[in-house]
Backbone:
């Protein structure tokens, strides 16, 4: 592809991921031409940070880019693909979704692929891309090379990954991030109901995450469910009013006990 | 109580918590006289690190200590209490359990309380106690003062907490640590089945924990369940063979969606 500053990129999306990705691209020296978002305000906010133009109309998308990165919600992605892929027959088109197979581009573009950064993003704090695993897939050698070049300019953990493997990684990410965060929420609600501070739990939360850097999660498991300490578990259940939460407590306790004994 | 080096402590237990606690006590300058464990080997291993004597017999426990710290499993605790509390009528007795009320000592000792360090412990890596919240409860002013003095010598986050509040904190800790770790396990199993590395998820796991330092867990929540993205959720469910794991996926997804909309 040549030099980084010669690679022109149009970024579709202005959400959490698009914001972090756009900032990382710009900092790495890529030429981000334009930001698209369904809402003009969101497009402008991100475009201003990147020195790019903003648009909320697909018909105003630049046809001049070498790469179109589609960091959109899965349902929005499907609806914009046909129009976007018509812009430039030589460009590379890539989406950033964990569970969308690469072949959504089939028949719509010649050069395409996937650029999936495995991280949870928030707009408030743009993530440093350097340590984010970037899972790359390309429909042909050219697409793969372009996407690898971009990924390697942002991150030192770049992996070629098939759609089938990426889907599994995305499921693991739902367990390791979204479901973990639900547990944080339930801890927070439990404390709040009694006027206690969530911040009390932060050292425990941090150590629980740190522990699985040096032990397998199975080795790291502690708590009443491992040893099926019925007395503690029943005392804890009696503190839970919500029926769903009780079902969750029982189900997770059973699963912890089973996993500990396999 | 006087100077730290004059406070003589007997430590009952040689497990994960007892090991970290013993090392922290010794480093803070306390005089750890003796370590008790049901197995002589475990008692000796920890005692050697602390320059203390070791015993596996309750009848050989020293009666010379000012403080007896019982860092035992909940069921072991109940069975040793009567004998231990008879040793020295002037001493302070404290257990370290989240869900055991202080009044288990009632009628057995005059001076007693609870010393609950809110953390997950492993023997491999003794925890630095400085940032561990220590929840203290005392049956009388003397007991409270002694336990506060010890806690403050180890940690800069010491809080007087009732048995009722501690029980709630312990439940929150099960959500925020034990159940979180189960999610890590399920992520690990998901990846392993396809020959993928758990280490791929560590940046995501770390950021998920880091995020709730600056956002509430509710604000931090991302993923397909927040927006009830049925297409992604069904694609993910189709990857799960285990019936319990599917139930968990459904239940947690529903709960995430509900919490996001309250």
Residues:
């Amino acid at each position: 592809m040549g030099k980084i500053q010669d690679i022109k990129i149009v970024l579709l999306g202005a959400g959490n991921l698009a914001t972090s990705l756009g900032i990382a691209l710009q900092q790495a020296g890529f030429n981000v031409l334009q930001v698209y978002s369904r809402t003009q305000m969101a497009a402008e906010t991100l475009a201003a940070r990147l020195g790019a133009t903003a648009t909320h109309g697909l018909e105003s998308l630049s046809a001049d880019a070498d790469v179109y990165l589609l960091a959109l919600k899965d349902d929005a992605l499907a609806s914009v693909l046909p129009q976007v892929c018509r812009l430039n027959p030589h460009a590379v088109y890539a989406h950033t979704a964990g569970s969308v197979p690469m072949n959504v581009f089939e028949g719509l573009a010649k050069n395409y692929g996937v650029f999936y950064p495995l991280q949870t993003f928030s707009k408030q704090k743009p993530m440093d891309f350097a340590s984010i695993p970037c899972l790359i897939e390309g429909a042909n050698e050219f697409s793969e090379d372009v996407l690898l070049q971009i990924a390697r300019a942002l991150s030192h953990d770049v992996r070629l990954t098939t759609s089938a493997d990426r889907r599994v990684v995305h499921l693991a990410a739902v367990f390791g991030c979204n479901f973990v965060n639900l547990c944080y929420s339930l801890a927070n609600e439990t404390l709040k109901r009694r006027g206690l501070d969530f911040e009390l739990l932060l050292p425990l939360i941090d150590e629980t995450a740190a522990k699985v850097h040096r032990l397998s999660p199975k080795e790291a498991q502690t708590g009443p469910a491992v040893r099926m300490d019925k007395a503690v578990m029943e005392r804890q259940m009696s503190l839970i009013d919500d029926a769903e939460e009780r079902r969750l407590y029982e189900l997770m306790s059973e699963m912890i006990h089973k996993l500990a004994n396999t």
Notes: Chain A has two domains: 4-161, 167-261. The CA atoms of residues 151 and 209 of chain A lie 26 Å apart.
